[in-house]
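Possible regression after last week's pipeline update?

I re-ran a chain I had predicted before the update to compare outputs. Posting the input and the new output here so someone can diff against the archived version. Not blocking, just want to make sure nothing changed silently.
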Amino acid sequence: MKKTILIIDDSAPLRLVLNEILQTAGFDTLQAEDATSALGLLDGRKVHLLICDLYMPDLDGLTLLQKVRTIPSYRFTPVIMLSTEKSEEFKDKAYNAGAKAWVTKPFSPQQMLNAVARLISVE
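New output (post-update):
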């Protein structure tokens, strides 16, 4: 059974790039353009990993991460935060909120796949 990754980013081009990278590597993907849409997709279906942008229009990624941690089915689902932000303060906040990895934009496909591989396997 393929593992499913939820991509949450308000940039459609970035979602498409991530979708291509992840599907080529053997993952199934879901996409959400904002935190509200992402929460709607977390409806009990099995999601193995979330890749979440830090800055989004409705709720920021840290707030979304805090909300995800209150949903019993997704309490321990690993989350990779994705941002142009390089500040250690933001990284610390993300890790304290439960993020398992931080990937800085721009990133190479290999950087993203390495981060994913540290948290889940393809099969």
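Follow-up from reviewer: compared with the archived run. The CA atoms of residues 90 and 103 lie 12 Å apart. Marking as no regression found.
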